[in-house]
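During the practical work, I worked with a single protein chain and the tokens that describe its fold, as given directly below.
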Amino acid sequence: MRILIIEDEKRLANTLADLISSSNDIADISNDGESGLDNALAGIYDAIVLDVMLPKIDGFEILRRLRLSKIFTPVLMLTAKSDLEDRVKGLDLGADYYLTKPFEIDEFSACLRSILRRKNDIMPEVLVYGDLTLNPATCELRCGVQSVRLSFKELAILRLLIMNKENILSKETILLKVWGYDSDADDNNVEAYMSFLRKKMLFLKSKVVIGVIRRIGYYLEVEGID
């Protein structure tokens, strides 16, 4: 999963990012409200950790604009304020959880897991498409009795394709979702990993193929089905 941290306290932001990364998830950091809002509006994140007191644009305004833009990514709000009025305001604007500073790391982890349950309730732990079964917990891709192990990037890309099986995903979307904003990866990286995935799917003798529409993007389809 990819999680956006919008927090101007750099030390805290880095600590939370390290914690998220230790669970094999990806964390991006924005240290002010303006860049945080810009990143959040991309709609590529599975969750957002949002501080209330931020330079340029505060957390309440960021949350308000996200919900007005029909972006319903789960949001965990962080604040040094414990006033009931502020907590109510955040929840009314669409926050999923409210955590008051200072907090323990274990408490943060539990709150983050809580807001992610909304996605997990919808998305099964094991993803199925055609004759393929993808288990993110073990990085295993299975077809019948055959199975292969995927790398972290291969897993992230295939998971993204399965979750968006109704849509065509552009290279830009894949780069942002899998590599992040601050990565030096380019179109060649996407093409290379698509090639790796195709070879593994061919090895499994799967009927699922990764299709491509030139200059538009990638999609999944099952061969032999009209």
The longest strand covers residues 208-213. DSSP finds eight helices and eleven strands in the chain. The two ends are 33 Å apart (CA to CA).
